[in-house]
Design brief:
Order of helices and strands: HHEEHHH
Mean pLDDT: 78
Shape: rod-shaped
Number of helices: 5
Radius of gyration: 48 Å
Strand content: under 5%
Number of strands: 2
Structural class: mainly alpha
Distance between the termini: 124 Å
Largest sheet: 2 strands, antiparallel
Helix content: 55-70%
C-alpha cells in the first residue's frame, strides 16, 4: 500500500466535493419515481428514530493562577468559595492554640494554688532530699524503731 505525502489544498478539496455532489445529483435524476419515494420514506424514518445530537456550548476558558481551567470570573462567589474555608481554617487554628494556652495556664494555676495552700514551704520542693523523701515515702514503723534502738 502506497502512502502519498501530497497534501491537498482547500481549493482542491472544495472542487472534489462540488464534483461529487454534481455526480450524485445526476444519478438521482435517473432513478425511477417509486424508488425515490421509498428512499425518501426510509430517510424520514431514519431521521425520526435517530438520537438527538449533543449541542456543544462553547465558552471562553482561561487558565487560572491555581493551574486549573476556569471560565472567567463568576463574581464574588468565586472569591468567597476559596476564602471562606481558608478563614475557617485560620480561625480554627487560632482557637485551638488559645484553648491549649488556657489549659496550660489553668494547670499551672492549680499547681501554684496547691503549693501555696500546703503546709510545706515552697523552698522545700527545691531541696533534692525532700524530693527523694516524696518518692520513697515516709519511714516505716520498723525503720523508726530500729533507728531509736541504735540511738540508745
Amino acid at each position: 500500500m502506497k502512502h502519498f505525502d501530497d497534501q491537498f489544498t482547500q481549493t482542491q478539496v472544495d472542487q472534489f466535493g462540488q464534483a461529487s455532489a454534481a455526480l450524485l445529483r445526476q444519478g438521482t435524476q435517473s432513478i425511477p419515481k417509486n424508488i425515490k419515494d421509498r428512499l425518501y420514506a426510509a430517510r424520514m424514518k431514519a431521521l425520526s428514530v435517530r438520537k438527538p445530537e449533543k449541542v456543544r456550548i462553547q465558552k471562553q476558558v482561561l487558565a487560572g493562577s491555581a493551574r486549573n481551567w476556569t471560565s472567567g470570573s463568576n463574581g464574588i462567589w468565586d472569591t468567597v468559595g476559596w476564602i471562606a474555608p481558608l478563614m475557617v481554617l485560620v480561625f480554627g487554628l487560632i482557637g485551638i492554640a488559645q484553648w491549649q494556652d488556657d489549659s496550660r495556664i489553668n494547670d499551672i494555676a492549680e499547681v501554684d494554688a496547691a503549693l501555696l495552700s500546703d503546709d510545706v514551704p515552697p523552698d522545700a520542693y527545691a531541696d533534692s532530699g525532700f524530693m527523694a523523701f516524696l518518692k520513697n515515702g515516709p519511714l516505716s514503723e520498723s525503720d523508726s524503731a530500729s533507728d531509736s534502738i541504735q540511738s540508745k
